[in-house]
Amino acid sequence: MNARIDDWTAGAEAIVYQSCAACGGLQYFRRSFCVACGAQDPVEKYASGAGTVYATSLVRRAATPETRAHIPYNIVLVDTVEGFRMMAHGDNDLSIGDEVTARFVPFAGRLVPYFEKVK
Fold this sequence. Notes:
The protein is mainly β. The chain has 2 domains: 1-46, no CATH class; 50-117, CATH 2.40.50.
């Protein structure tokens, strides 16, 4: 079994994805098997944090009391340069097609990936 590396879900400033040695498939979130071919133990890799906005949704109504202080906030789908798609937070002015890079910010008591436009 491959050694697990920490990412933002464990409080580290990193995004981790998996690559299958058998078929080359990529996946994000972690699983113990490849969702494309079923092979066991995909390899974990660090993502660069670079990508392109695929979709964006500005949240104007808090889902929980903890998120109320952040209204409005943007949820984005990002196609990463590594080849997987992920959901995260982002600048409120992001548009589909914007090139972005990730940093990490506190949100409702947790550290989360946050995408901003490449300058």
